[in-house]
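Two entries, shown back to back:
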Amino acid sequence: MDQHNAYDETLWNAFKKGDKGAFGQLYELHYRPLFGYGYKLLPDTAQIEDIIQDLFIQLWRTRQSLTDVHNVKFYLFRAIRRDIARLSEKRKRFQDIDVEHSFSDDSGTYFFEHEEQEKLLTHKLMGILRALPERQLEVVTLRFFENFGTEEIAAIMGISEKSVRNTMYKALTHLRENTHDLVPFMELLLLLSVLGELV
């Protein structure tokens, strides 16, 4: 368990015992990543804010019956996706994805350093990402921008690990075939994807 997950788990255990300070820290730590991810699935700022708020209200109300959690980020991502999916079923479908907003610096997980040339490449990549089907974009986001493994992505999205791998392959193949400037970057993503299966 890495240091961040260990800290999250400490906060989670304290929150379950009624520690409002720990609960507030969990909210502050995870709000932006949750918002960024949720906005990709449902590009409605007010609605996503409400969903996140409702999620944490429900967590507080049911804190005494919650189980131990060893990866709080994974738990919260899976929960918010479930809540958005339920809402989307009522609406019949997910709305269009706003890639540029959701891949902003808010999450603090940019692949590139903040240099001008790299920013230009990032901008080009965003344009290409817009063309990806929703599921492919979600898998790429969870793997490379939120650092979830294949097993975790499968659990979050409610699909098999094989489907995750197939979707990832299709997404990266599409991205690599539709740009020449970003070939080195795409090769890096493919390499990291393979390495991710080995750890």
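entry 2 starts here
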Amino acid sequence: MTPSIISVDWLKNHLDDEELIILDASQKSVQSDDVASTQNVRIPGARKFDLKNDFSQPKGMFPNTFPEIRTFENGCRKLGVNQSSKIVIYDNLGIYSSPRAWWMFRTFGHQSVSVLDGGLPAWINAGFETEITKNTTLDMGDFVASLNAFAVKNIDDIKANISTQNEWLIDARSPGRFNGTDPEPREGFLSGHIPNSINIPFKQVLNKGKLKTKNELLEIFKTIPNKDKPLIFSCGSGVTACIVYLAAEQVLDNSKSVYDGSWTEWATLNTKDLIV
């Protein structure tokens, strides 16, 4: 299987691969205090993966709602993605929104996909070439999506798991939001956490925009009591959950999924079941 994380040196050495497609999954606004130091530049040849507008349900009740299979398939084809494509995804915060796009490709059956460790900042810091972001005409690809429904959890799955505890629910939000001592960034939302969940903040698995070493990640994931259970990852709206998912993928063999509605859905529909 294609490595889930690759270095800027690897990417630099494979730029001439005809099957390579580079996707820029940077977002204009993020629910984070991090600010991108680079705007309107890209790795040469990168294509824009617009998570908000092209790869989420346009009429979804919650932010970043997982798209319908044909929405994702058609969006990928418009980007020129083929069944044979080798995809590398990055963003301009190092590692932030790129794991969400990576998880979506994996969930829709495309395994030849990797996240660029350190993203655009690491590429620039290595002294590699960039270009001004511009619109380009692309040939339609032949990508065919095949959904792994077990990789996406809904609110009923989470409710059932509170009782059965068959899976560990890992919350990637900050400790303050998880413990109910800091406000949620979205106005009107209470903070707190879903019963029986475990807090592993996404920033804890990162070091200057890159994933921490495997030894460091193993130490972090020691907070999970039983390593044999499947893992469900959650956050505010399903984006930073995928960062911790990606980190877990480096060191844990457990089956993994994402609670797509995450805290935004839970806090909206289950105020009686909040824990603060």
